[in-house]
Amino acid sequence: MSAAAPPAVDPAAVEEMAREAAAWCALHGLVVGDRANPRSATVPGVGLVHAPFSLLPARLPEHFWRQASELAPIFNELVDRVSLDGDFLQYSLSKTRQVDDFTSRLLEIHRKMMETNKKENIRLGLHRSDYMLDSETRSLLQIELNTISASFPGLGSLVSELHRTLINQYGHLLSLEPKRVPGNAASSKFAEALAKAWAEFNVDSAVVMMIIQPEERNMYDQYWLTKHLKESYGVTSIRKTLSQVEAEGKVLPDGTLLVDSKQVAVVYYRAGYTPNDYPSEAEWSARLLIEQSSAVKCPSISYHLVGTKKIQQELAKPNVLERFFENKEDIAKLRKCFAGLWGLDDEEIIKTAIEKPELFVLKPQREGGGNNIYGLDLRETLTILQKEGGDARAAYILMQRIFPEASLAYLVRDGICHEGLVISELGIYGAYLRNKDKVVINDQSGYLMRTKVSSSDEGGVAAGFAVLDSLYLT
Ligand code: ADP
Ligand code: MG
Ligand code: MG
Question: What are the φ and ψ backbone dihedral angles of 385, each rounded to 5 degrees?
């Protein structure tokens, strides 16, 4: 993946394009709350700024695009099958739970559901599988699979539209063709999946409840789904924090979830993936309450756990995929995109990583960006963990570091256009909906490209490392 900017675009033309593009963002809702305005994270419509974006789409050979797209339904199915094997989840995470309090709390809820033999008939997954193109091996390797709060289905679709618009207008200067930017329906596809889950639940007066953080600068990404739900399907959504659910929610004896006296058909989490979202016991009670109810959870506690880094690493071990799939072709496709992944019970790999830390990434069981350990910090952390010995290591996994090829691109942030050496990460959204034996949806559901300066280790857009981007197929 490399940026599509041809070498000799006149700087004045770039500047003009960046201004046009930023205005387009404001006109089309490609916006986030502005850090500079303290009210922007709590009051809708206040303190908006265009989302950070790349001026032109990132290049990607078409066969990688096809490969990543084909993987989406296979990963969707994998998540569903692994989620049904409660013992596998409990066992694989048993050491991690002893040293990681957050994972331990999630597993406790999961164990309670296993004990009461709780069945989820309607299962909804809205995932995003992220990839980087490794320059040395020319292979597309998975970074991670997000099964909770996969962000930017709303804004990501708009970036593709922005890029097509710019190429239409300036294509003659750029020698680019708009049709090479693939259409991106992430926003409407996710809304469709939520609406169909609501329809399977089959209570006309029930609502979709979005679980949100008390402060959310990325609220417009979420409001795009709300809008599609209402306008295309007539489905009403409500927005609640976990602490509000604790205060206003209850579960009736038949499993009905009522929040603020409204029956909830589908719970869609855009919070709850980090320990910061559980500052007190109230939030944990809310999570448990929702799990005990008959509402459709996106994700359920077991879908959530399947998306942990530890499970990613367990699934990459020899003969583990075979537990969940019979189809050899599917297994081969999955395995082809797995990078090197190791648990820290492997002494050999720890030694190698201490010697060559630049070839590895050390990951704790966290989500949301900014948590991984690289380079000299990685060496130091591993050295300490090795000296201490024992269980503390189970909180981490080691991953082969992937090195995408860097190229020049224009990144626009806060109305200012910078040129920089960048690398990109491709996310493919997947939607999966099942009611008992009936698979209602199993689709690739759009994409998200994120681009960051190549000197930055981390990649989150919301965390401030990356910008939103789209794709240019070559
Ligand atoms: P999170 O769940 O916090 O998003 P990720 O596993 O996606 O965790 O890691 C965050 C970022 O770190 C990624 O977006 C990517 O930029 C970078 N990263 C993660 N794993 C690797 C890797 N194996 N090689 C290179 N960069 C990586
Ligand atoms: Mg993640
Ligand atoms: Mg990530």
Answer: -60, -40
ipTM, two decimals, is 0.99
30 Cα: distance to centroid of ligand 2 (angstroms): 22
Q: What is the pLDDT of residue 208?
A: 98
Q: Could you confirm whether 347 is annotated as catalytic?
A: no
Q: What is the CA(65)–ligand 1 centre distance, in A?
A: 19
Ligand 1 pocket, mutate which of 304, 363, 372 (most atoms under 8 A from CB) = 372
Give the mean pLDDT of 287-308: 98
pLDDT tens digits for range 379-388:
999 999 999 8
* Angle at alpha carbon of residue 420, lines to 415 and 426, rounded to 5°: 90
Question: Is pTM beyond 0.95 here?
Answer: yes
Work out how many domains the chain is built from and give that number: 2
> Does the pLDDT of residue 257 top 60, yes or no?
yes
Q: 332 and 376: one domain?
A: no
Is 200 annotated in the active site? Answer: no
Domain interval for residue 173: 2-339+402-473
For residues 182 and 326, state if they share a domain: yes
DSSP class per residue in 249-301: EEE-TT--EEETTEEEEEEEESS-SSGGG-SSHHHHHHHHHHHHSSSEEET-H
Distance (Å, rounded) from C-alpha 441 to C-alpha 367? Answer: 26
